[in-house]
Write a structure and sequence with these properties.
four-stranded antiparallel β-sheet; about 400 residues; 13 helices; Aspartate Aminotransferase, domain 1; alpha/beta; Aspartate Aminotransferase, domain 2
Length: about 400
Amino acid sequence: MSLPDMHTAEPIPEQARAEIDRLLHSGDLFRYTAKDQAPVSLLEAEFAELLGAKYALAVSSCSAALFLSLKALGLPRDAKVLIPGFTFAAVPSAVIHADCLPVLCEVGDNYRIDLADFEAKLPTVQAVIISHMRGHTSDMSAIMSLCDDIGIPVIEDAAHSLGTTWNGANIGTIGKIGCFSFQSYKMINAGEGGIMITDDADLVARAIIMSGAYEHNWQKHPVLHDAFARWQNKLPLYNLRLSNLSAAVIRPQLPHLAQRVTDGLKNHDFVADMLNISPNINVPLPLAKEVRAPDSIQFNLNDMTDAQVLTFIEAAAAVGVKVQVFGMSDDNARAFWNWQFIQDLPELPQTRQMLMRACDVRLPVRLTEPELIQVANCILQAVDQATHTQSYGT
């Protein structure tokens, strides 16, 4: 039995075809040319309802959503924004693009924010971005309590966390703004695209105008019009809109999200149980209030040298499983020391140590149990080859 291709995206539902054909025939790919019921507008309404938010704004990427969120908060130039030391390079890039300064926080070996370091640095910043990296949710109850006590706004980078919940609440609805991705390796795939949600009418009005709702196009958004009138002609336009064609690809996938979340968590936990048999592998447990929506698996390698880790990566690749060890390459965009566009880049020893042993493997929700067993056995055998220990598996 050959290994499945774990790097192809989920297929787009057939229902998208008719709407795509209609759009191609009409040529109405720009969201504001439709007289009514534009696909982007329908997507925003459906996504807001799905997550339980008042407002949604679909844009060109999650990075664009993060950038617009910071601009919509009205932060002053050079405002400091606290972010985790373990996130994708797009997050500090969005901070810099918004004329702010990223402040990096330590992350533990469970991939979640170190709350002691977070609390120590919080008084020095004007905003916070919490990245639920690879769907691993930090303690949002503690984070929101700390931030609310001193009036610091929280943006949730939920690019990897659509469908995840914290204490029953949807991730992305806990902070002031939630930002999501529709890039191909996410639960909902449009190739590119993003969306932000909030309950703040004034904030979303500013974001809508800056996203590219020029002249009176803001009137096609269901937000309080006095909020728009307050900001028209007073904000720059960044033109970060989503096209109707992308929305047509996204909308038919929304009804499949719940099943994808269920399947993804089942697959993750099945493989995690197999991997945790090995003394050299640890898959961190979820926090008590967290229910994840994974389409990948992360695990730490224990008691292995750098040479053994490299041997493990090569052995896994030789049998068809691509393992990314975040810190073991010169250009990984999730290793903070590669964010050399940040002036005075700090050292985060705890985060660095974690990244040097933290592994990432795609685990598409469509995989069958025999395929999952095969993937897990390949990983276990690669560890065995690297460490010359007993083999594990089913």
